[in-house]
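Notes from hallway chat w/ T.B., transcribed later so I don't forget. T.B. wanted the structure written out for a chain they're using in a teaching module, and asked if we could keep both sequence and C-alpha cells in one place. Agreed to drop them here.
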Amino acid sequence: MRKNILLAFFCSVSMASFAQQKKIDSLINELNKHTQQDTTRYFLLKNIARTYNNSDPEKALQTADQAIELARKLNDQIKVASALTTKGISYHKLGKDSLAFIVLNQALDIYTKAGDQQHAADLLFNMGYIYFDIANYYEALKSHTAALKLYEQLNKLQEQADVLNSIGNSYLRLGAYPASLESYFRALKIYTQINSGEPNSMVLTNIGNVYYHLSDFSKSLQYHLQAVKADELTDNKENLAHDYDNLGNTYDEMKNLDKALEYYQKALALYKISNDQRNMAATLMNSAVISLKMKQYDTSLNYLQRALQICESYTDEYKMSAILDGIGSLFMQAPDAFLLSHGIAPANRNATVNKYLEQSIKLAAKTGSLIKQAATLELMSKAYEKQGNFVKALTSYKQSVAFKDSALNDETKQKTTRQEMQFEFDKKEALTKAETDRKQIIATAEIKQQQTVKNATIAGAVVLLIAAISVFVFYKRKRDAQQQQKDAEFKTEVADTEMKALRSQMNPHFIFNSLNSISDYVSKNDIKAADYYLTRFAKLMRMILENSEQKEVSLYEDLKALELYMQLESMRMKNKFSYQIIIEEDIDQENTMIPPLILQPFVENSIWHGISKKEGQGKILIHIKKEGDLLNCIVEDNGIGRERSRNTEKPNLERKSLGMKITKARIDIINKLKKSKAAIELSDLAEGLRVEVKIPLELSF
C-alpha cells in the first residue's frame, strides 16, 4: 500500500515565525507598561505564554508560572487552572509528557471541583490530543470519551462531532476499523445536522481512509469523491489538493492508472497555485511511479527530474536519494530506444544505472539514516545481479543487511559501553577496598594482641581486662570487615543484575525484528508507516536507557514504556494480539514507584512463547492492584501455555529461563534491600499463563 512520501500539511515557517514574534513583542510591550498585579496583567502573561508555545516552549513555561503565581494571588482558581493548562502544553511541547499530565490533571481537578463542565470537557479534549500525539491511543480514547460525555450533557453539538472524529482517529490507529467507522458516522451525522445538510469533508476523508485500510477501494473512492464535492462547495483548495492525492492513491490500488494520474495532475495544479513545494514533490514522485507502471518512461523521468529539482532547492537529501533510486530503477527497466533518445548507448545502461545509485548512496550516507542506506544498497544488489556482477551483488546485499543490523544508533551503543566500563571499575574498586580493609583490620588486631601480652606481665587482673577488651575490639572490627565485604559483594551483585536486566530489555532479537519491519515499510514505499514505527522504536530505546539509570520509576512511566513495546510488537505481528491495561482506582500511578521494566520479560514471553504460535487472536492483560503492603502486577495471556511451549520451542528455553532468572535476581535484591516479601508466582490457565509479580508498595511522597 503506497502512501504519499511527505506529510500533508506544511506552512510558511518564516512568515509564521515573523508574525508570532511581532505578536510577542507587542504583548511584552503591553506587559511592561501594565505593572499592576491584576486580571489584565494575568491575561497578558497567559497570552504571551500561549504564543511562546509555538516558538519557544521554555519561555512559555516560565511565563505560565508567572501567570499561575498571579492567579493565586488574585485567589481565582479558574484562572489558576487555565494557566496550568498552558503550562501543561508547554511541557508537552518540550517532550516532558509525564510532567504535562501531572499539571493538566491538577487543572482538571480544579475545574471538576468547581463544577465547570465546559472547561473540564475542553481540557479532556486537549489531553486526548496529547495522548494521541504520543501514540497512547487507549488513554486518548479514555480522555475523549469523558469529554464526549460532558459535551452531551452540555448539548454542545459542534464539540460532540469534533471529539467523535478524534475518537475515530484513535480507533483507526489501533486497527479497530468497525469502531472507527461507527465514531466517524456519528460525527458525520452531527456535522450534517449543524451545517444545514452539508457534510464535513474531513470526516468523509477519514471514512475513505478506513475503507482504504480495509482494501475496500470502491467504498474508499465513494467517500473521497464526496469529500471532493464538499470542498469544492467551500472552495477549500488546500483540502481539495489532498483529496485529489487520496483519489490518486485509491485509483492506483484499483489498477486504474489513467485515473490515478489524472487526479495526481489535479493535485499538482493546486499545489502549484499555493506554491506548496514539498507536497508537489511528493505527488510528482507518485506520478512518476504510475507513469513507469504505464511504461511512459519519458513522462516518468520528467516527473522525477522535477521532483529532484524541488528537493534540491531546500536540500532534502533523504528525498533526493529516494528520487535517484527511482531514476536508477527507470533506466534499469527502460528499453534501448528510450536510452538512445536520451543519448545513452544501450551498452552504457549499466554504467548509467550505477551512476545514479552511487549518487543515491552518497546522499543516503549524508542523512545518517541507516534504513535509507540499507534500502539503496538492496536496490544496488538487484542492479548488480541483473548485470551479472554477482560478487558486487552479494557485497551490496551483505552491506544492506549490516546496516539493518546496526540501526541501533551509535549514541545508544556508546552509552551502553560507558555503563559497562563504569560497572567494571566500580566492581574492582569495591573488591580492592574490601581486601585492603580486611588486611588493615588483621594487622591492627595483631598489634593489639602483642600489646595485650606485654601488659599481661604487669598484673593478672589488668591482663584479663585488657584481653577481654582486645577480643571484643578484634571481633567487632572483624565483623565490620566481613560486613563491608558482604556490602561490596552485594553492590556488585546489584550492578551486575542491573546490567543483565538492561541487556535483556534491549533484546537483540526484538531490535533486529523491529528494524526488519521498518525496512519492509520502506521497501513498500510506505514512508509514513516506517517513520511512525521508527519514531516509536527510537522512543522506546531512549526510555529503556533512561529508565535503566533509575532504581525506581513511576508506575505511569513504566507502563508507558511497556505499552509502547506492545504497540510495536502488535504492529510488527499484523495485530496478532490485543492488550488491556487495568489499574485499580486506589492506585496513584504518578507517585507509585516500581523497578523499571520489571514486567517486560513476562510480556515478551507471552508474545513469543504463548501467542505467536497460537492459532487465532491473542490477548494480553496487565492488571495492577494492591494487596496489603504489596503491589501485585499481573501479566495474563491466552497463549498456548507452558507445556506446549516447552514441547514446541526447546531452542528458546535458554532465553526464557534467562529472563526469568534475571527478574528473580532483581526480586531477591529488592527483598534484601527492603526486607520485604516480594515474589513471582506462575499459574497455568486453561488457556495461557498467569504471572503475578508482587513487589513492595512504594510511594514517592
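Follow-up for T.B.: Residues 410-456 form the longest helix (47 residues). Might be a good example for the class.
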